[in-house]
Design a protein that fits this description.
Elements (H helix, E strand, L loop, with lengths): L7 E7 L5 E6 L10 E7 L10 E3 L4 E4 L7 E9 L13 E4 L17
Length: 113
């Protein structure tokens, strides 16, 4: 597979069950069009888990089930129809998953007997 040049742009993070991050990127500008993308993430910059989220030819994806209060680092690789990945990762972006807002606790006065 030819080396692909693309950039990963973090659009926004949103709260979902367990927290999630929505990612968007530009497709490669050189070489053949990818058959899909593999999204990698981890909690240390440059160190990603072994199992990527595989997405098709779309240029947006949501990474679900992330832990609130944790900073994550994301990068992706394009892949061809045979499953071969680009040699290099995209640029890296990071996001910290916010805690869900809890409703305020309101005291209810209790009447004295």
């Amino acid at each position: 597979m030819k080396k692909s040049l693309f950039s990963l742009l973090l659009l926004f993070s949103s709260i979902a069950l367990g927290g999630s991050v929505n990612l968007a990127w530009n497709p490669p500008t050189v070489g053949p069009a990818p058959a899909g993308y593999n999204i990698y993430w981890g909690t240390v910059s440059g160190v990603y888990g072994p199992t990527p989220l595989q997405v098709g030819t779309v240029t947006t994806a949501t990474v679900p089930n992330l832990t609130a209060g944790t900073q994550y680092f994301f990068a992706l690789k394009s892949r061809d129809s045979a499953g071969a990945q680009s040699a290099a990762f995209s640029n890296e972006v990071s996001a910290t998953i916010p805690f869900a807002l809890q409703p305020p606790i309101v005291g209810v006065p209790v009447a004295n007997p």
